[in-house]
Amino acid sequence: MMFVCSRCGAHEPSATRAPRCRCGGLWDLEHEHPPFDPAAVDRREWSMFRYRAFMELDDDATWQSVTMGEGMTPIIDFDDDLALKMDYLMPTGSFKDRGAAALIAHCVSIGVDRVVQDSSGNAGHAVAAYCARAGIGCEIFVPQGTSPKKIDLIRASGAAVNVVPGSRDHCADVCRAKVAAEGVYYANHVYNPVFYEGTKTFAYEIWEQLGRIPANILVPVGNGTLFLGLVKGLEELLDAGLIEAMPQIIAVQAAGCDPLLRAAEAGASQPAAVTPEPTLAEGIAIGAPMRGAQILACARRYGVRFVHAPEDEILPARAALDARGVHCEHTTAANLAAYWQYCRQWGPTPDCLTTMCGAGLKSDH
């Protein structure tokens, strides 16, 4: 398995400890697995690793010591037009378990014994939990204002937690400074391309569970780990001839932190410069997404539409989900708020699916 630089095309063995290429580009994975084939899905395995034949993994044994049954989350109806994929029914209560399980399996394969990561909470909890299972030391950096419950959960997994004053983007800078100074492995959900081998299973599961892909898929976008994984999985289904066209992807940004939405509206290839405002949707409050150019390129290629989650509708959306028995965190409720906004802008939008990406018990401030 090889890493390839997204900027200069340089190749590096996947066992590298370098978080990014010497030129500054982020790593992608060189495609080596066979086309998606339903006959090769391991239906005896009830986790996302049932799709391991189509995932770039270092070996076929490591995942077995790391998995906690992540994936294969149910799809339920919210109403006649909108379905919910219940990704908060994961071992750590968020979709980030998909990427964390794949990434920490990779860390075990290449002999990593200690990692650091920056996170707004859910990715930190996921990496901490899978590190605990794998016996890997873990240190997580979170921005000030992160839900106290998420911090408690990270610590409960045995990880050290550093609460960094300032924005989410500043928190990432502080963590990366430690990586540069000490050479510790950066198990980051944005930088490390193995993470996306987990998040792309989101698309595989939808196709397998429904026997098709809905006409519309609404997905939150901060750093884009689920967005890019979804696109990657859909591309593989398209290449395999299992779907005829890409669905309409609807990308959600917080009203007070929308560098990708602004860039898309302006036809720009790089994220717009923004000053993030306080938002309940802390999980997507990313002012400077490191894979922003890649996200925007995907958006242009597939006609992705961006939409705001109005801040004053996040709590009403959460209440509406609670009234249907679904208790989610604020960032997840922003998906429904954005769906309402999208319907106001574009009209009724039936056959739509979104993710319930984080559990409500993690974000009660």
Automatic annotation (TrEMBL):
InterPro entries: Ser/Thr_Dehydratase (IPR050147), Ser/Thr_deHydtase_PyrdxlP-BS (IPR000634), TrpB-like_PALP (IPR001926), TrpB-like_PALP_sf (IPR036052). Keywords: Lyase, Pyridoxal phosphate. Its cofactor is pyridoxal 5'-phosphate. One of its GO terms (biological process) is L-threonine catabolic process. The keyword Lyase applies. This is Threonine synthase. One of its GO terms (molecular function) is L-serine ammonia-lyase activity. Residues 66-358 form the Tryptophan synthase beta chain-like PALP domain. The keyword Membrane does not apply. Pfam families: PALP (PF00291).
